[in-house]
């Protein structure tokens, strides 16, 4: 059973790979991110999961909207978003990615201490993503990340792609005294990991640590079925957005706001209420910290 009748809707706006050629409204810049986050908050999202992009020379060719772990880009995105939300009178939790791939460990965590987000992603295992590249999360990095989330009071969102990952979550929680209960985000349907089926999701839910909260997302074509299965199984949250799925229906490209609106509608049809940002904090055990709103930054970051 969920901890509350309220469903936490998280919007994952761009990820590291979705391109404007695929989905024209995928946000690249801090301004685009902040505008969409405000709109998604108004539509019912209570968490915004943020990746950042930059224009970068790659193999001699300029790539527009290339994946980035630049501290400057994260600072721009977070400060612009906080200001836009304040101006619009909306509240949303900021969840920053630590999924840096080829970046060195320090670049994947430097924004946690600098920006004090309420949440961050925590991927507890290395996988062969879609059987095409290594999504590396070494024990060396995960021990460092564990220390950072404890030090800066950041709620980790443990992204679980397969069965054994649940055990890995508890290994790091217990080793580093990460506050419990953990919050688990099931990511279903990534090639090389757990396929997005109702049977598999039910199995994973049965393996949850005692008291854990959980959310679910299905990648691509499993997006809708995993939302429906999650609601049927009593999820605490649903994750949607152009990071995971670019289609609203077959052949119809979605926007982030549309995906949030659909998750809200489905949740209400299932007899659930939509969690506000303050509801989400209560469900996830996140305490408001004035430091998050008062952190100041130098404009000369070179991250």
UniProtKB/TrEMBL annotation:
Stored Pfam families: BKACE
GO molecular function annotations of the record: 3-keto-5-aminohexanoate cleavage activity; metal ion binding
Cofactor names: Zn(2+)
Coiled-coil zones: none
Keywords: Metal-binding, Transferase, Zinc
Keyword Zinc: yes
Protein name per UniProt: Uncharacterized conserved protein, DUF849 family
Organism the protein comes from: Sporobacter termitidis DSM 10068
């Amino acid at each position: 059973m969920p901890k509350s009748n309220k469903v936490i809707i998280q919007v994952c706006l761009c990820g590291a790979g979705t391109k404007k050629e695929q989905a024209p409204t995928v946000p690249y810049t801090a301004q685009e991110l902040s505008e969409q986050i405000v709109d998604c908050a108004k539509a019912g999202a209570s968490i915004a999961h943020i990746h950042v992009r930059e224009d970068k020379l790659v193999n001699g060719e300029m790539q527009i909207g290339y994946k980035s772990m630049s501290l400057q880009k994260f600072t721009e995105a977070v400060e612009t978003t906080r200001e836009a939300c304040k101006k619009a009178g909306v509240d949303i939790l900021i969840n920053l990615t630590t999924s840096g791939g080829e970046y060195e460990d320090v670049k994947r965590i430097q924004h946690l201490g600098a920006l004090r987000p309420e949440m961050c992603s925590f991927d507890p295992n290395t996988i062969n993503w879609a059987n095409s590249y290594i999504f590396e999360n070494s024990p060396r990095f995960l021990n460092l990340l564990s220390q950072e989330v404890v030090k800066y009071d950041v709620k980790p969102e443990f992204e679980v792609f397969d069965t054994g990952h649940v055990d890995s979550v508890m290994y790091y929680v217990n080793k580093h005294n990460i506050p419990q209960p953990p919050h688990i985000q099931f990511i279903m349907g990534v090639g090389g990991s757990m396929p997005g089926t109702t049977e598999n999701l039910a199995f994973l839910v049965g393996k949850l640590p005692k008291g854990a909260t959980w959310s679910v997302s299905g990648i691509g074509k499993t997006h809708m079925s995993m939302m429906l299965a999650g609601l049927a199984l009593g999820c605490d949250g649903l994750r949607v957005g152009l990071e995971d799925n670019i289609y609203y229906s077959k052949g119809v490209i979605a926007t982030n706001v549309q995906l949030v609106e659909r998750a809200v509608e489905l949740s209400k049809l299932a007899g659930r209420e939509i969690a506000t940002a303050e509801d989400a904090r209560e469900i996830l055990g996140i305490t408001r910290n004035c430091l998050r709103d008062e952190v100041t930054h130098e404009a000369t970051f070179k991250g």
